[in-house]
Design goal:
The chain is mainly alpha-helical. It has a domain at about 635-700. About 40% of the residues lie in helices and about 5% in strands. β5 (about 425-430) and β6 form a beta hairpin. The longest helix is centred in the N-terminal third of the chain and has 16 residues, at about 115-130. It is globular, with a radius of gyration of 26 Å.
Length: about 700
């Protein structure tokens, strides 16, 4: 019986195997990118899906209505394509247009040698060029997810004879020809911009005795505007952004000691902001309490799934457990469950605590096993609806395609079907995980070399067989490579060297999926230390890094006026940050589909998003979000130099932790409209906010 306590907020179309004929391989063709959609409609700056193969037009045994028309530029009304059907129901396309470029706040002062708009745009243009990207349309491609069904299968599902009630199936095909997702990072990096980035990526390397030894022995040879300072590099990659205090801590402790401390987050005291998370009342409620108090929470305007995102943002900005938070974000993209799904308000916070955070620096096999028994994942991918006589293959497919071996990891469509049969019986009842033996398929299965008789009526044994299968795929060599590739892409380069990926995969296999040894291998590898300037901050990362480098405090400013008696200043401020991230197109757990956000620069090249981020930096410099406390811009540098050029140098050191190039320095001075030798006061003669904002638009702040 489905969980009746989680009423759907959107129409759902959870189709199951209907026992009729499958689409033939000839029915598959490639579609170009369609239009964006998301949990709240079009989100400017949202990354696109690259071209992927999925069935086009009405399929045998499918009603025509299942394939709604998708409108867009150059769209042929006679051509129909599927929309992704999953945890949020039928994905609705929206128009491709987004809001125009936000205002650059040009004051139009005719006395300035170069207008602020032109100077700031030049700085940002430098950031885009240095990153090596080319602008791409920000339009996600929706994809079709097809659940096929039939009579209750019995017996042996491993042979060449189909036993699940269907006839012609593409069971021997590789998933690359019938994939539901193109692997996002790989797809984007196959573009011309990706090829340009790859040419600037160091190749080859070796492992040293530890991170400090690797840092000392590695020479940075790639072209980059970033300072070749290993401490700054480590702070940029292993945290959500360097701060003066963080850099001082690493230099004081040493690289090895700092990394060791970060790998033991339980020993790091919570920050003041983390203690203030008690002001988000739903965070401490269990799923049962959230269910029981649903009406009261609705009356108070509390939204548990949004408070979870608020809390995640607070930790990213203010937690001292920075490497842990980076890894939580990594796993939230890799083993992705969207916050905004039907049931997310009850179960997503528990998934965050009991699955992702519990295992983020532990064992990935244990994380995947735990995820497959958690109500959030079971409801998100419709496993609760799957039974032996009507199999829903969503979770079985994504376990292989996204959460373990990867789409090219060696499995076939037949493996997906058998995995779906094996996993029948798992579901949610009364808010908790249950195994229903009456829904479970009995019969031999074989998936990627895993075989099991699967013939026991004992619920514990049947459930244990599924756990054994999940652990098997989590330790598969293809999973080791896939996790290694993803980790190297996050920490090193959009096109990570094969030498490093192979080394990380070997560490994963040797340590049975433990994460800390992989991170130690990563930080002890020359490829990591040689990759200065090879990663660009995504919109969420840019915003969080801006809060961090400006030293924004979680305490309310004296100018704050309490206008919402139901929520504290801190809670209101975090919600405003989340809303801005949604506007930028990226926020924690925000991707509506199970593949998570792409982690490469060419997926996020959007002039509108970039300018919007600069404007938000201006808001923070001006202290306009009064729910928090800010350092006045004229006090960012303790003892401001008396000349404009020296002041720019000092402000750059304070905000981006290094010097600017001569060209960038000149552009910054153009923002102020003065030459380098001009004497200025602490306010930069009234231009300090504009100068600081321009520095935060530089490549040195966009790169990490």
């Amino acid at each position: 019986m489905a969980d009746q306590n989680v009423p759907p907020r959107r129409p759902r179309d959870d189709r199951a195997w209907d026992g009729r004929q499958d689409p033939s391989p000839d029915a598959y063709r490639e579609h170009g990118p369609s239009t964006a959609y998301g949990p709240t409609g079009h989100e400017p700056g949202h990354p696109p899906y690259h071209q992927a193969s999925y069935p086009a037009g009405p399929q045998p045994g499918r009603p025509q209505s299942a394939y709604p028309t998708v409108a867009g530029p150059g769209h042929d009304p006679a051509r129909r394509g599927p929309r992704w059907v999953g945890p949020d129901g039928l994905g609705g396309p929206t128009g491709p247009g987004g809001p125009g470029l936000p205002n650059l706040d040009d004051d139009g002062d005719p006395g300035r040698r170069v207008g602020r708009r032109r100077a700031l745009a030049a700085i940002g243009g430098t950031a885009a060029v240095v990153a090596g990207g080319a602008a791409l349309a920000m339009t996600p491609q929706v994809r079709g997810l097809f659940d096929l069904g039939g009579d209750a299968p019995i017996g042996d599902a491993t042979g060449t004879t189909v036993t699940d009630g269907s006839s012609v199936r593409p069971g021997g095909q590789q998933p690359s020809t019938v994939r539901t997702y193109t692997e996002q990072n790989e797809s984007y990096m196959g573009s011309r911009a990706g090829a340009a980035l790859k040419r600037n990526t160091p190749t080859g390397g070796r492992t040293f005795s530890g991170p400090a030894a690797a840092a000392e022995a590695t020479e940075v040879t790639v072209k980059t505007v970033l300072a070749k300072d290993p401490v700054r590099h480590l702070a940029s990659r292993a945290t959500f952004g360097a701060t003066p205090k963080l850099l001082a801590d690493i230099r004081r402790m040493g690289i090895d000691a700092w990394v060791r401390e970060q790998l033991e987050p339980e020993k790091i005291a919570p920050s003041a902001a983390e203690l203030k998370l008690s002001e988000l009342p739903t965070l401490k409620l269990s799923p049962q309490q959230l269910r029981d108090q649903r009406d009261a929470l609705n009356e108070r305007g509390a939204q548990p799934e949004r408070e979870l995102v608020d809390a995640t943002i607070a930790r990213q900005i203010w937690s001292e457990r920075q490497l842990f938070e980076v890894m939580v974000d990594f796993w939230n993209d890799f083993l992705h469950v969207a916050a905004d799904f039907d049931g997310g308000e009850v179960y997503r916070a528990s998934f965050d605590t009991d699955v992702v955070r519990r295992h983020a620096l532990g064992s990935y096999p244990e994380m995947l096993v735990a995820a497959n028994k958690h109500p959030a994942l079971l409801l998100y991918l419709n496993q609760n609806d799957s039974r032996a006589d009507a199999v829903n293959e969503n979770l079985a497919r994504e376990n292989l395609e996204l959460y373990s071996v990867g789409v090219d990891g060696g499995y076939t469509e037949k493996d997906v079907r058998q995995a779906a049969l094996l996993q029948t019986g798992r579901g949610v009842n009364d808010g908790t995980y249950v195994f229903r033996p009456e829904r479970h398929y009995l019969g031999k299965v074989k998936i990627l070399g895993f075989t099991h008789a699967n013939n026991s009526d004992d619920p514990k044994k049947a459930d244990a067989a599924i756990d054994a299968y999940i652990a098997y795929i989590a330790l598969h060599p293809s999973t080791a490579k896939y996790v290694a590739q993803s980790l190297a892409t996050r920490f090193v380069s959009d096109t990570p060297p094969k030498s490093l990926v192979d080394r990380l995969a070997k560490t994963y296999a040797a340590n049975k999926g433990m994460i800390k040894p992989m991170l130690m291998t990563l930080f002890s590898s020359s490829e990591f230390w040689a990759s200065v300037g090879q990663k660009v901050r995504r919109p969420m990362e840019y915003l969080v890094a801006t809060y961090r480098t400006l030293g924004v405090s979680p305490q309310a400013s004296p100018a704050f006026e309490q206008r919402d008696s139901r929520r504290t200043a801190f809670a209101q401020g975090l919600r405003q940050v989340q809303d801005k991230m949604r506007e930028l197109g990226q926020y924690p757990m925000g991707q509506p589909t199970p593949d998570g956000y792409p982690d490469v620069y060419v997926a996020w090249t959007s002039a509108g998003t970039m300018v919007n981020g600069w404007n938000e930096a201006g808001e923070l410099i001006g202290g306009r979000r009064t729910q928090f406390t800010y350092t006045p811009p004229e006090k960012l540098v303790a003892k401001p130099p008396a000349t404009a050029g020296a002041y720019v140098d000092a402000l750059a050191q304070r905000l981006v932790h290094q010097k600017l190039s001569a060209r960038e320095r000149e552009l910054i001075l153009d923002v102020a409209g003065v030459p380098a030798g001009t004497r200025v006061d602490a306010t930069f003669d009234g231009a300090v906010a504009a100068v600081a904002r321009a520095i935060l638009a530089s490549p040195q702040h966009h790169l990490r």
